[in-house]
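User: Hey, quick favor. My workstation is busy. Could you predict this chain's structure for me?
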Amino acid sequence: MSEDVSQIPVAIVGGGPVGMMLALFLDRLGVRSVLFNSAAATRWHPKGSTEGSRTMEHFRRLGIAGEIRKLGLPADHPTDVAYFTRFATYELARLRMPSAADVARQVAAAPATDQVPEPIHRANQMHVERFLFEHASRRPNITMRFGWRVEDFTEDAAGVTLSAIREQGGACERWRAQYLVGCDGGRSLVRRKLGIGYQGEPGIEQRYLGGRMFSTYVRAPNLYRDVLKPRRAWQYWAVNPEIRSLLISVNGDDEFLLRTQARVPDKPPEDEAVADVMRRCVGAETKLTIIAHEPWTAGMALVAGKFGAGRVWLAGDAVHLFTPTGGFGMNTGIDDADNLAWKLAAMVQGWGGARLLATYESERQPIALRNTHAARQLTVNIGETAVDPQIEEDSTQGAAARLKAGAMLAGFGEQFASLGVQLGARYDGSPIVAGDGAPPADSFENYTPTGVPGGRAPHIWLDGGRGTGDSLYDRLGAGFTLLRLGGKAADTAGIAAAAARRAIPLGVLDVESAAARELYQRDLVLIRPDQYVAWRGNRPPEDADRLLAQMVGV
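Assistant: No problem, here it is.
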């Protein structure tokens, strides 16, 4: 190989939150990567505002959850979802949700077996992306190539060679990587070059939340003072016979994201038309500055037919496209990165087997199908909500209509409390999971902790504290962790020796808590690097070498 080709274990195309988190996961595992992104910096336009509980657990593992929680709405700002006929008139229903300060108090008072050490957080994705960009730029194992466009790549049996061009100035670089991952979004160059297409539902046509939509970044300096201050929320829905739109608070003051339906499907939005929608949602004149628009499609539920193969893989929007309803898209993509990172590390470091990377698709594709379906169904539910034409009348009939609509809207809480989607993804039947017992029924709304292999390791607080270092997750190693539960000194020498022979990173953690033993229902539990239960038993495995070989895809 000529000297002008830079060598790297993993090349990542696409510097959104999924690409950056993949690089950060690899960094924690001691694997170097280069991260290419055609834009020189993260885009400053509001996107989703939901960091799910599992995503916050990932941030905790990287040591940045506390900093992420400082982003977004002010600490005392409620994260309620409120429904109005118009923002200045009747309130129909309110789904009450805690402020960041409330969340901190709830965690501090949580019981030892509480399953949500990192509750959901509401910070706009643009703020989170900017933080991840700055954090990744300081990490020793990450080479940042923002402002560089990957033009092409070729794969062979030993690796991938790719060429990149600097957007400003046209400088060229060639890189040689052992593996390439496309995190480059819905128009993914990597996916298209692999010849992989999407399958599923491209959108949904309905009167509200249907077809082509726009997210408009607006500044309304007087809206809080004049209308919203006594009825603060995170999301404000306008629901009346004339219009139905959503306003999301970005900073708890003067910045908002307004979601509207396109008047003409194939044309860009007109500022005046969007401003008119805003005025009709408020129900009064309000000073408004439109900063920018971004199109999207309601009801989209697309999943790639394959997630990659060989030396080239895909993650995030490159393999699944969501309707924004539910806030599942970025979070599902970060879970992709978590699953893929340790498997890439295993291959780069020499302890992964030939079948390991194939389990990335077999484990994650069913979750993509599950989560896109959940988001689409929420879109259908909201879009089909009927509104009585008398709902805005100051009359007995109007009051009755508002009461009926409020009762119906109050039932939409599952969209915002979807803990089953966030924490309940399972890999049952995976060839690198040793099945043992029946898993709980899948639920979008509810999460049931279980030690049955194939699911997220049940959480427990240790030693009475609720801070950094007190969570079971804080004590799991970067590689595999073997838990010895209930104070029983089970013999782990055999499995430790087998791991050493195969160079598989393995730590042993004693957890004496009886509550932990009750959660896992076994004395010994093997936790994967992604905090999923791989195996459990009341005695050491009869053939430890064979078990570990299975766990790493040999």
